[in-house]
Design brief:
502 residues; alpha/beta; globular; 4-stranded mixed sheet; 2 domains; 34% helix; CBS-domain; TIM Barrel; 8-stranded parallel β-barrel
């Protein structure tokens, strides 16, 4: 006996279903949750340990997000609302991170105060600061300040020149990472400055970086053992120069970032990339139909990004009356892409673990998220308080604010005198670091796979194709019943934390 409907039956009515419109029926469990693997592909050649990508939005992904997400098994895509040089520099920071050498360390001068160290610690999470003569990398290294130097000093206005350690152990420029690590172990110091022949600081090695391979066994790494990172570019002709700079910086994959990816502009850019950099992995999109997928795959796409208007800050469907329910979009696009051996990234519409599960069950190999990662410590921007709540800004790339600094490239409206916004700006609550969030999401996904009765992504997509994966649609009352209801107050687990709701 078979309950429910398989995916073909579910979508034969051509309803524009969203994730909330359906529920997955359970399968048979004959394995432990620890046996579930989330290994997946986001392009023909790029594999990840976790099916999680961060969106190339200017309030979501820069180098800090990309580094931390790669360490946790996903991958970050750095936005292009910046200059070519700025984006390329962010890519280099990610690529050089796992090498162990911090090539652009934060430095201060002897005339800075302990309060400046406190500010760096609050913003970046570390407090081991090299001290140079004038507080730049262009002057001689004269000392270093660590927690041990400043933690118990009551007067935070004390100059660092009075507190810094001047008895330094350094290594010469050109030292290998292995030798640098051995010097750190032997010296029992936390930081090892690398200096040139003139005594100027060129890099820094941290003891904590030696531990990275043990702490992050699932880190996303390229063949050269560096962290993997993606970057976005537009279809504008000038972004061919951006492409050159990104490739030179070592980018592993680029995503052509268009709101409507089925265009002559994107196809021309794809063909240019294929002819200029045939080995570079390219994700194309955004699309929502099989015809769109077919055109981009034919032009050379290695992965397809699916979604038009489902994002929390996106108003495309409402403003343009064009798009598709995200569950339907992911299913139909994945159906064609799997036949071609091309992975699909479901972009947008993710509010919780269940939505990620449904996206993968529809055939996606990974999800790309903005809202889920917004407000975390690694996102760009400063925290601020409103009505006693700690917040960060979050905006759509088609919001007026983002378009003012380059987001309009994504919507073919860069040169228009009258611009129509397809997104909004807003605020999100502080979610803390993603090192807590991502393991929470991955553990939730493993439990969901176990409930469905599959051990990995390959098996999930296999039963989707065979028709053994069954679904039912949900009424509004069914959706309400499936959530918390009829309570005066309750404690709701939110992204690895607990919050009280009344």
């Amino acid at each position: 006996m078979t309950d429910g409907m398989n995916a073909r039956e579910l979508f034969k009515s051509h309803n524009s279903l969203t994730y909330d419109d359906l529920i997955i029926l359970p399968g048979y469990i004959d394995f432990g949750v620890q046996e579930v693997s989330l290994q997946t592909r986001i392009t023909r050649d790029i594999e990840l340990s976790a099916p999680l990508c961060s969106s190339p939005m200017d309030t979501v992904t820069e180098s800090e997000m990309a580094v931390q997400l790669a360490l946790l098994g996903g991958i970050g895509f750095i936005h292009y609302n910046n200059t070519i040089e700025q984006q390329a520099r962010m890519v280099r920071r990610v690529k050089r991170y796992e090498n162990g050498f911090i090539t652009e360390p934060v430095v201060l001068s002897p005339k800075h105060c302990i309060s400046d160290v406190d500010e760096i610690r609050s913003k970046h999470g570390f407090s081991g600061i090299p001290i140079t003569e004038d507080g730049t990398l262009d002057s001689k290294l004269v000392g270093i300040v660590t927690n041990r130097d400043v933690d118990f000093e009551q007067d935070r206005s004390t100059l660092l020149g009075e507190m810094m350690t001047t008895d330094l152990i350094t290594a010469p420029k050109g030292v290998t990472l292995g030798d640098a690590n051995r010097m750190l172990r032997d010296s029992k110091r936390g930081k090892l400055p690398i200096i040139d022949e003139n005594g100027r600081l060129t890099a820094l090695v941290s003891r904590t970086d030696i531990m990275k391979n043990r702490e992050f066994p699932d880190a996303s790494k390229s063949i050269d053992k560096q962290l993997m990172v993606g970057a976005a570019l537009s279809t504008r002709p000038e972004d061919r120069d951006r492409l050159d700079a990104l490739v030179e910086s070592g980018v592993d994959v680029v995503v052509i970032d268009s709101a409507q990816g089925h265009s002559v502009y994107q196809i021309d850019m794809l063909r240019h990339i294929r002819s200029t950099y045939p080995d570079l992995q390219v994700i194309a999109g955004n699309v929502v139909t099989q015809d769109q997928c077919a055109a981009l795959i034919k032009a050379g796409a290695d992965g397809i990004r699916v979604g038009m208007g489902p994002g929390s800050i996106c108003t495309t469907q409402e403003t343009m009356a064009v798009g598709r329910g995200q569950a339907a979009a992911v299913y139909h696009c994945s159906l064609h892409c799997r036949e071609q051996g091309i992975p699909v990234i479901a972009d947008g519409g993710i509010r919780d673990i269940g939505h990620i599960v449904k996206a993968l069950a529809m055939g996606a190999s990974a999800v790309m998220m903005g809202l889920m990662f917004s407000g975390t410590s690694e996102t760009p921007g400063e925290y601020f308080y409103q009505n006693g709540v700690r917040l960060k800004r979050y905006r759509g790339m088609a919001s007026i604010e983002a378009m003012d600094v380059g987001g309009s490239k994504r919507y073919f409206s860069e040169d228009e005198t009258v611009r129509v916004a397809q997104g909004v700006s807003g605020m999100v609550v502080d979610k803390g670091p993603i090192r807590n969030l991502v393991p929470y999401l991955c553990q939730g996904l493993k439990h969901a796979f176990q409930d469905i009765g599959v051990r990995d992504m390959r098996m999930l997509h296999s039963i989707l194709d065979s028709g053994d994966l069954c679904f039912e649609t949900r009424t509004q009352s069914g959706q309400r019943e499936g959530g918390v209801h009829d309570m005066y107050s309750y404690e709701k687990p939110a992204l690895g934390t607990r919050e009280r709701v009344e």
